[in-house]
């Protein structure tokens, strides 16, 4: 018995040695074409969710590996994520800064680490040079202008002599909030009919949009002629409050919104919103192409604005196709 076990042990050792000797060659793990760290603001709106989905879809198309982190609306989470990307030595960092200030230190760390940073959607404010390589995002100032130009046309068409406006803004100190407001105000400034009764920060959130509208209706009631809301989410929150007050959105109060998501376009088609300025979340293709150019050492554009349009009750809204977000 003992001899048999000894024989088996010897055979096992011989077999192991043979296998060891012809072990498969080390398989080099396949390196990703490019590793991108993405710090996304959150999931506060259909726009944001659509933006995240588009980045992920385009990353798959361009064979880019993503480290996607959701900051849940907190700047400190974005800063921490960027530091993780630096430690991980990603090829490129992309992020949408929730507000414009407060990024100098962490972006200097990325620059010192030799990692290029692409701004997606929103911008930063800084005295420092070259902390970022490119901004891919909407012309928010133009969006504000287009919203105001629609209102001027609407006031002309209705023969209004006085136009009382309430404004529900996006996140304070964010690029879209600052520039949409500036574009709108600059455009109505020359029109004596236009008066902004009050402006409240709705933080791009549906719940805050409802709260703001309720507060504005309590204060101004049916003297409100226009509600200018910086995004569809807040607009959709505000509409039921207008109806609860016994007013008809789209006729008693002119409703102007920005983003152009499916839900708002459907409500536009029902006549409860009068104008939706498009702000496309589909920035993923431009982001991937820019990142791959940077990786290849090629020159990139410093500013990329997507094409955008206005949807309103001046057109045949039945022709508006599916929005995809
Ligand atoms: C605009 C984007 C804004 C959207 C909101 O590009 O930053 O943030 O308008 C989103 O819906 O929350």
Any overview of this molecule?
The protein is of the alpha/beta class. It has two domains: 34-138 and 281-309, Response regulator (Rossmann fold), CATH 3.40.50.2300; 140-279, 3-Layer(aba) Sandwich (Rossmann fold). It contains ten helices and twelve strands. It has helices at residues 2-21, 46-61, 75-87, 104-112, 140-158, 175-188, 206-220, 232-244, 262-270, 284-295; strands spanning 35-40, 65-70, 92-95, 117-120, 134-136, 163-169, 194-201, 226-229, 254-259, 275-278, 303-304, 310-312. The longest helix has 20 residues, at 2-21. The chain is elongated, with a radius of gyration of 27 Å. The mean pLDDT is 94. Beta-D-galactofuranose (GZL) binds next to helix 2 and strand 9.
Summarize the structure.
The chain folds into two domains: 34-138 and 281-309, Rossmann fold, CATH 3.40.50; 140-279, Response regulator (Rossmann fold, 3-Layer(aba) Sandwich), CATH 3.40.50.2300.
């Amino acid at each position: 018995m003992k001899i048999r076990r000894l024989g088996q042990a010897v055979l096992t050792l011989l077999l192991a040695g043979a296998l060891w000797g012809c072990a498969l060659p080390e398989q080099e793990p396949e390196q990703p074409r490019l590793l991108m760290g993405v710090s996304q603001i959150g999931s506060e709106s259909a726009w944001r969710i659509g933006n995240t989905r588009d980045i992920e879809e385009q990353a798959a198309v361009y064979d880019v590996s993503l480290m996607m982190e959701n900051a849940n609306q907190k700047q400190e989470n974005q800063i921490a994520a960027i530091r993780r990307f630096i430690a991980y030595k990603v090829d490129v960092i992309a992020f949408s800064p929730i507000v414009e200030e407060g990024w100098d230190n962490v972006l200097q760390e990325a620059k010192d680490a030799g990692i290029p940073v692409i701004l997606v959607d929103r911008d930063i404010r800084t005295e420092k040079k070259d902390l970022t390589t490119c901004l891919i995002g909407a012309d928010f100032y133009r969006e504000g202008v287009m919203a105001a130009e629609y209102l001027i046309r609407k006031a002309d068409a209705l023969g209004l002599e006085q136009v009382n406006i309430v404004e529900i803004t996006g996140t304070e100190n964010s690029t879209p909030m600052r520039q949409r407001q500036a574009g709108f105000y600059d455009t109505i400034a020359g029109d004596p009919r236009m008066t902004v009764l009050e402006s409240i920060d709705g933080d791009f959130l549906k719940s805050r949009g409802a709260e703001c509208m309720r507060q504005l209706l309590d204060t101004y009631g049916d003297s409100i002629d226009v509600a200018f809301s910086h995004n569809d989410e807040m607009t959709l929150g505000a509409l039921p409050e207008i109806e609860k007050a016994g007013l008809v959105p789209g006729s008693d109060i002119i409703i102007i919104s920005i983003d152009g998501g499916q839900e708002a376009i459907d409500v536009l088609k029902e006549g409860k919103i009068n104008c939706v300025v498009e702000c496309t979340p589909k920035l993923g293709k431009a982001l991937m192409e820019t990142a791959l150019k940077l990786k290849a050492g090629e020159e990139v554009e410093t500013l990329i604005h997507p094409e955008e349009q206005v949807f309103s009750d001046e057109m045949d809204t039945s022709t508006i196709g599916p929005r995809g977000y």
